[in-house]
Design a protein that fits this description.
The complex is a heterodimer.
Chain A lengths: L9 H14 L4 E7 H9 L10 E8 L1 H4 L2 H11 L4 E5 L13 H6 L3 E4 L3 H10 L4 E8 L4 H14 L4 E8 L2 H8 L8 E5 H7 L5 H7 L2 E5 L3 H17 L4 E3 L11 H10 E8 L3 E10 L8 H4 L15 H5 L31 H8 L8 H9 L1
Parallel strand pairs in A: 1-2, 1-7, 3-4, 3-5, 5-6, 7-8, 8-9
Antiparallel strand pairs in A: 6-11, 10-11
Helix pairs in contact in A: 1-11, 2-15, 7-12
Chain B lengths: L13 H14 L3 H4 L13 E9 L5 E2 L2 E2 H14 L3 E13 L4 H18 L3 E9 L7 E11 L15 E4 L5 H11 L15 H11 L3 E5 L5 H13 L2 E5 L7 H10 L13 E4 L4 H9 L8 E7 L6 E4 L5 E4 L12
Parallel strand pairs in B: 4-5, 9-12
Antiparallel strand pairs in B: 1-6, 2-3, 4-6, 7-10, 7-11, 8-10, 9-11, 12-13
Helix pairs in contact in B: 1-4, 3-4, 6-9
């Protein structure tokens, strides 16, 4: 497969690993922001090939995981209405809220459908004009433009039974919040490639300026990830942090300006609650007033109740990188992918799911613990 | 006849009789079936009897490379074959939803007839019920099958030993990817097709020549190769070591998995088997498997060791290693 096989080439990977072992002379802790990075690192078995001094910490880059339980509860409640068809990406369906998940609601008769694109939801709305078709609009910079484009298409078609439940988020504000947490010690950031395609590599500059954090934008295959880790180790050891674009075949400094202006035209920043991180100013996206007719929360006056975390669940701390999944008392016992308590165990990009699926061969199982201890 | 299934077709009355005589018998010619007795009486078997049942509810009912009908025939034949049994006869139970198009039903029964003829295994008894619209989903099929197991054949996980070789009879994940992409309405370039096919010819040929060296066999259907190997690992308390690089896959299947964020190790196969064999005979078995069309792309994909007892370990294309856990929950496509 072109553009994939080259970046998984065993000889290249082994050469990069060798280089990393030769070059790493001090402890370097790196946060991989994006859940797709976390999964790829596990799936390709990269973690246990790295030098012991390199510590990888998973960050808050799983859109399903950071959606607070109050919003999940609102989704489930909305699904219970007989005049509503819920459309959603698959990952969201099994996330438990305080009164069950969307999958539970579906089993009890709710009309909940998995779609692969918000455009599919619009197609359903055209086919079923009697029902209100609601797309659960969850996702980061990568996902938002297609949702914006769907709103425009709905407007053009004059569709009055298509809505979104706006719960989109943007990446820079939570990273800002995270880096101010004294419990987290991070030297470098493996910046998300997909987000950067839209937002541009420059969107991470403030982390260099404010926190002297080494940054490398990375693709998702082993060679991409190792090149970026190598770049980060170089920056940290030289004490010269900057934003390095290691995903040049897809990412530019400015990003996709057309997609950005589409998003700006339809959405406006609002304060938004993140699981584990609390409410962060300007970290979410709401529809602009001229598009608010597509906002189901306005139409039905839905207000999210205060969030409550499942008892004992440490997803919030896992998302902040200060707790490793195996340090959570529920991990693998009460909380498993088949019977999840927290969202990090559900999503295909969740840190706990990654550790549960692939984590058994890890030698360095309590990296987060070390990190906590280092602070004491 | 009307062009849709109605509740009358399942009432046991004349309409149902017409359906059986004019549609089912046209494609299912076995004389025992045509006797329309309450049970099929078959000749005395020579050997131990294998007996298996499976229900088919696949959505969509027609998919590239096949339909629910031939899937129901091949699936039960394969379950028998995995125990080393030679399949003798099948039952066919149909649950039809009111409003199913008759020409869809005819297409399905026709392909059941064709699959039975190809496999040499007849439908000898059957039943049809109709449920009101909304109480089913077009058509559900149950098939049961009986077969006989040869005298010296002993296919069981209990015989798996350290050092055994793992063979796979062809490319991975074709069926699972085909179903998921057709359900998603995704158009993937190339030629995605279900791999539904019977495996008893391949099994018969292997067992004829190397029966003693075959320790166990499994067909990695639901849950895929990953889950099936994890079950063998758990049952034997041995480690299944596999090489990602050696697992054959079609290019378009890999591409579709990348696109949808699916792990091919957990996707269903409907015409593939894993053979666990004694190391000294593995190469010979591989040659036999490759000599039949359904095994032409067979590969040795790994071996049995004591490295991580009860676990499956995959050496990745990139050269790393990771565990392969059994599937839990449905494979979900990714969000971004």
């Amino acid at each position: 497969m072109k553009y994939v096989d080259e970046y998984r080439n065993r000889n290249l990977v082994l050469a990069l690993i060798k280089k990393l072992h030769a070059r790493t002379t001090m402890p370097v802790s790196i946060m991989e922001v994006c859940g797709t990075h976390t999964m790829s690192i596990f799936r390709h078995g990269i973690r246990n090939m790295l030098p012991g001094q390199i510590q990888l910490i998973s960050g808050p880059g799983c859109p399903v995981c950071v959606t607070p339980s109050s919003v999940i509860d609102a989704f489930v409640e909305l699904a219970g209405r007989s005049d509503v068809i819920i459309t959603t990406f698959g990952d969201m369906i099994r996330v438990p809220g305080s009164n069950g998940s969307l999958a539970d609601a579906r089993a009890e008769g709710a009309d909940v459908r998995i779609v692969y694109s918000p455009m599919d939801a619009l197609t359903i709305a055209a086919k079923e004009p009697e029902q209100m078709v609601v797309f659960l609009s969850v996702g980061f910079e990568t996902t938002t433009p297609t949702i914006g484009a769907t709103i425009l298409a709905a407007e053009q078609q004059g569709r009055d039974n298509f809505f979104i439940f706006p719960a989109n988020k943007v990446m820079p504000p939570p990273l800002d919040t995270l880096m101010q947490d004294p419990r987290l010690k991070v030297d470098g950031l493996l910046c998300p490639g997909h987000v950067s395609i839209i937002a541009g590599a420059d969107s991470f500059r403030f982390l260099v300026d404010r926190y002297r954090l080494a940054c490398a934008v990375a693709g998702f295959d082993p060679v991409d990830i190792l090149l970026a880790i190598l770049a980060l180790v170089g920056q940290v050891q030289a004490g010269k942090p900057r934003v390095e674009n290691c995903y040049g075949r897809a990412v530019t400094r400015q990003g996709n300006t057309r997609a950005q202006s589409l998003v700006n035209r339809i959405f406006t920043p609002v304060d938004s609650e993140w699981r584990g991180l609390g409410t962060i100013p300007a970290s979410g996206l709401a529809l602009r007033p001229e598009y608010s007719a597509f906002d189901i929360t306005k139409k039905l006056d839905i207000r999210a109740a205060p969030s409550s975390e499942p008892r004992g669940c440490r997803c919030g701390e896992v998302l902040k990188g200060i707790c490793m999944p195996k340090q959570c008392p529920l991990f693998g016992s009460r909380c498993t992918p088949a019977n999840p308590v927290g969202p990090c165990m559900v999503s295909s990009e969740g840190t706990c799911a990654a550790w549960h699926h692939y984590g058994g061969l890890e030698k360095k199982q309590i990296e987060g613990g070390k990190n906590e201890e280092r602070q004491k | 006849m009307s062009s849709y299934i109605t509740l009358d077709h399942g009432s046991g009355g004349l309409t149902g009789q017409i359906l059986i005589q004019e549609l089912f018998f046209r494609y299912l010619p076995d004389p025992v079936l045509h006797q329309l007795e309450d049970a099929a009486v078959l000749p005395e078997p020579c050997g131990r009897i294998a007996f298996s049942t499976d229900s088919y509810v696949v959505d969509p009912i027609f998919f590239p490379g096949g339909n629910i009908g031939e899937l129901a025939v091949n699936g039960t034949i394969n379950d028998l074959a995995m125990q080393g049994a030679r399949p003798l006869a099948l039952s066919l139970g149909l649950i039809l939803e009111e409003g199913l198009r008759l020409d869809d039903l005819e297409n399905i029964i026709e392909s059941i007839g064709a699959a039975c003829e190809y496999a040499g295994v007849p439908v000898v008894t059957g039943d049809t019920k109709v449920v009101p619209r909304g109480k089913g989903d077009k058509i559900f099929i149950n098939t049961s099958g009986i077969g006989v197991v040869g005298k010296d054949i002993e296919i069981t996980t209990g015989r798996v030993r350290e050092g055994d070789i793992l063979l796979l009879s062809g490319t991975l994940a074709d069926h699972g990817v085909t179903i998921l992409t057709s359900r998603a309405g995704l158009e993937v370039a190339g030629n995605l097709q279900s791999d539904t096919r019977p495996l008893h010819f391949l099994v018969e040929k292997v067992l004829e020549q190397e029966g003693g060296a075959v320790h166990t066999m499994r067909d990695p259907t639901r849950g895929g190769l990953g889950t099936t190997l994890a079950e063998i690992a758990r049952a034997t308390n041995l480690c299944m070591e596999i090489e990602e690089e050696d697992i054959p896959m079609h290019g378009e299947v890999r591409a579709a998995c990348e696109l949808m964020g699916l792990d091919p190790l957990y996707l269903a196969n409907e015409g593939k088997c894993i053979v666990v064999a004694a190391p000294a005979r593995a190469e010979k078995i591989l040659r036999i498997m490759r000599s039949v069309p359904e095994g032409a792309e067979s590969r040795i994909i790994g071996r049995v060791s004591k490295k991580y007892p009860g676990r499956v370990v995959l050496t990745t294309v990139a050269g790393g290693a990771r565990l392969v856990e059994p599937l839990s929950g449905e494979p979900l496509p990714r969000i971004c």
